[in-house]
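Hi C.,

You asked whether I'd gotten around to modeling the 815-residue construct. I have! Everything is below, sequence then structure, no commentary in between.
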Amino acid sequence: MVTGPAGAPAGLRFDEVHDAAGAPRAHWRRLERDLLGADRATLLRAQDRVRRLRRNQGTLPATAGAAALRALDPIPHLLSPAEAAALDAGLRQRARLLELLLADVYGPRRLVERGVLPAEVVYGHPAFLRPCAGVPVGRWLVALAVDLARPPGGDWRVRGDRAAVPRGLGAVLSARRVLAGLHPDLYRGLRVQRVEGFFDTLRSTLAGLGEGLAAGAGDAAPAGGVRTVILSPGPDAEVFPEHAYLARNLGYTLVSGPDLTVRRGRVAVRSVGGLEPADVVLRLVDDEWCDPLELRPDSAFGPPGLLESARRGRVAVANAVGTGFVEHPVLGAFLPALARALLGEELRLAPVPTWWCGDDAARAEVLGDLDRVVLRPLTADAHPGAAAGSRLFPRTMTAGARGRLEAAVEARPGSWAAEEYAEAGTAPVVDDGRLAAGRLVLRGFVVAAGDGWETLPGGLARVRLERPGGEVVVVRKDVWALAGGPQRLAGPVLTLPQVDLGASLPSRNAEALYWMGRHAEAAETAVRAAQTISAELDESPELATDGGGAWGTMWAGALGWGDEPPHHSVIRSLADLLEASLSARELLSTHTGRVLATLEDRLGALRAATAPAEIDEIAGSTLTHLMALVGLSAESMVRDPGYLMLDIGRRLERALLLVRMLQGTLVPIPDRDIAGLTHETLLACCESLVAYRRRYRSDIEVHALARLLITDPGNPRSLYFQADRLLADLRRLPGPPPDEALQPLGTVLERLLMSDLAGLLAPAGDRRPGLAAFLGALAGDLDQVASAVTLRYFAHVPVQPLDLLAPGAAEPPGP
């Protein structure tokens, strides 16, 4: 039996698994027998497998610190059928109540007029956003997250709402798939309620918002169907992998602030084909960051004009901007009365006992027993050094600090809330292969469904574990709601209109895929160079000292060791590839994610390796996985703009690298005794040595080598082949053909077709000046292509007639 955490007797906390007599609760018996009694080796394997499964999903945070804070426990948390039913009823009631509250607060504000809600509580709180008052909203809440915990009495108490952003939607879907895959027999045997129907309902509700938007404006439904996007803070956010996972599973486009623009009152996605309308925005960005024009000027997380577009009824935002008001720390003090006023019902899920210190009687009660409460400043200036909404624990303060806190409350009583201090219930978690007890907070989820609400069966729990020595670890748990009877395996049949986004690719994704192609090609070429040089050093040890150790220097440079790895080295290119992939995460398949995860391992191994034999082995493995990446893109990716951008990046980088290698190996005429070795190394780096030997069956001659690498249309490594593929790819991208890129490419192909290799290879002293000029011109043309691609598809989208964005609009296009 797991005891309570250090710091308080176990009896002062509710035990989620065991009853007062220490026996396992009925719905926990099988799990305790099959899992809680496992030995340390089994639990360690379970922890490791969870990490691997999450990594394969692409939901494991990139940084080690974030991973520690967001670890997923291999032990699920269980809710009995009766517990799940009670939570279902309580959460649906709470969603109804908060929806009505928001409609009143941002509408007629009759609750303030009637004195049910003090005016200072509404107008004095930063989460009440005045620009949102009067904005026409079909539905304030689409998805709601509610945090609950059990005090010693055992009844669930609401600790807070997450309404602005229902955080954890992607995490709960990810956790369920990991834990169901980890314990398939337990999952089936316990008859766990499925969560997929909840996400189908979410999709249906979001589509309904878009259709309702068109109906409200008197327009027909969008011809191409309702376009829903998910607004995320972007790839730098710690939770971005979860947002990407949610977008991938819902089938929505994931965007960040710079991906969106507002034109003529309509929200549009910046795409490689131009501006594409967005009808519904499922936002995962907090209220104040959504619109720099009306809310927070320093925000880059939302497009300027989003609120005005919503005000005009041209976009539906879910959840509506301003819903963060119901996260107000003091609302718990008024919710029982609000439930009676708005619903005519008593609350099914009571909040943690809360007081608003602006009320004289409540303030006296709070200050009379500070050990009983947690104080929360409502504004940033309520108390020095305390952020709005933070929690202050008087019971742990010195006498002087408590005195200053009391004075701050007395000075600005309306800026303070207090809630009762109570330890959350305990649940078992696996910590380094051993069971420990932590304090559990359950997050439940509710989604709008027609005129009602639907709860997610189970949820996501957060367990706070205090290790010996004071270290605190936060672990997540998948929450399994057990079914009381047979389940219907098939979910609801959705009748959503078809939306064909095959030609759509946001510019951020396009840029990420383009650079993935370039960095992958650079890494592959650098690995081949390092392998070729290493093989030559093994066969001819004297090369290690020739030329002052130039060959050894080249080998180290190709790998990229040192504090500042050079561009196009293995280490630098792999690191850049992995960084670029973060912005395309939602577009990549599971298998591609696994390859990238392995390449991340290879990068770490290369950085740590010192022995040449070990380095060669790691380099070989790295090349294999880079080639797997090529194979996945060639054989598994639909030939859509995403594939084209990846291929454009790869072809352009291959062409530029080949030009540089030719400039370094063929323009200066090498000494006769190393000419053969130099040419063989060049062919090996370009994966053309076997092709040369099979075709010519002779010693390497520079004229034949030049034909194979420069003008041969059948060699996938030749300059001609790259230019020809680039031209085809660019012509297949949506939108008007980019003449600024096609023209220099046409010049490249013309130069290659009209080239006189014999004349270009003619020596003059120790150089080939004709070849130098020819290659320099090609490099210039290719650089123009790269610049044109960047300016056309990534840097901006030109202002265009926006008939697509405003059907039937008569006014001329413009911002």
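If it helps when you're writing up: The mean pLDDT is 88.

Thanks,
B.
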